[in-house]
Design goal:
This protein has 243 residues and is of the alpha+beta class. Helices cover 19% and strands 35% of the residues. It has a 5-stranded antiparallel beta sheet with strand order 5-6-4-9-10, with no helix packed on it. A 4-stranded antiparallel beta sheet has the order 8-11-12-13, with no helix packed on it. The chain crosses the membrane at residues 20-40.
Length: 243
């Protein structure tokens, strides 16, 4: 049988040390709000809602009112600590309460582009049928933090590498970087694949076959569609918007 006596620990700190800790936190909050006001996608902001557990701090409330009260109406709802939880419940009951959300990642597909020696690295040079191509290009559909409404759609048109190609495989990629260039960049991960059958015979023999890739944004998911314009055949895939 072991006995552990009660241990009381008292931490003493100076007022200067205490203020230095909170000053760094307040500075980060100030910069975040300031950048949103000056450079954010939404103009003519009028209200600032302070929510979450830390928003219960009287010092933080005073600081935000003092710094931004002249340009924004600062609103601190009752039960500020539970506001986020209440918002999640309301969203679960009615997803339409959130009209705009920001894209958590940069999404796109991997494609071949005509090689440009002034822009593309030599290790991406790929030659086929006498043409120089740049491989592994990340063709962006949307970028991280881009505001999106439910129902927004982005369409890209591509051409198969060969006229007689029987299958078109479109890989979907995501990155937490905005300026990503190639699907081989360290921040990029594969998050989906579309395989479109092109073997269906058509009375028309095109010299250039068009494949439309459509990215549409629903409430909590991204829907990807690949459409063979010649035959009308399509395949679909979904990505969880919140992951």
């Amino acid at each position: 049988m072991f006995y552990m006596p009660f241990v009381s620990i008292t931490v003493f700190t100076t007022l200067q040390h205490y203020l230095s800790i909170y000053l760094s936190i307040y500075l980060s909050i100030y910069l975040s709000i300031y950048l949103s006001i000056c450079y954010g996608p939404v103009s003519d902001l009028k209200y600032l809602f302070l929510v979450g557990g830390f928003a219960e701090s009287p010092m933080l409330q005073h600081f935000v009112r003092q710094e931004f009260g002249d340009i924004l109406k600062v609103i601190i709802p009752q039960g500020v600590g539970l506001s986020i939880l209440k918002g999640a419940v309301l969203y679960g009951l009615d997803p339409s309460v959130v009209s705009i959300r920001r894209c958590r990642l940069t999404y796109g597909v991997g494609v071949l582009n005509k090689f440009d020696e002034n822009k593309h690295p030599q290790d991406k040079l790929f030659t086929k049928d006498g043409m120089n191509w740049c491989s592994d290009v990340f063709d962006k559909f949307v970028v991280i933090n881009q505001p999106l409404r439910a129902g927004d759609t982005v369409v890209r048109s591509y051409t198969p590498a060969k006229i007689d190609q029987k299958l078109s495989i479109i890989n979907i990629y995501a990155s937490d970087k905005k300026d990503v260039q190639f699907i081989t960049d360290p921040s990029v991960r594969k998050c989906g694949t579309l395989s479109l059958d092109l073997s269906t015979e058509s009375p028309i023999t095109p010299t250039r076959r068009e494949i439309q890739t459509i990215m549409s944004f629903a409430d909590t998911e991204i829907r990807m569609t690949a459409l063979d314009v010649l035959t009308g055949k399509s395949v679909k895939s979904t990505i969880d918007f919140l992951e």
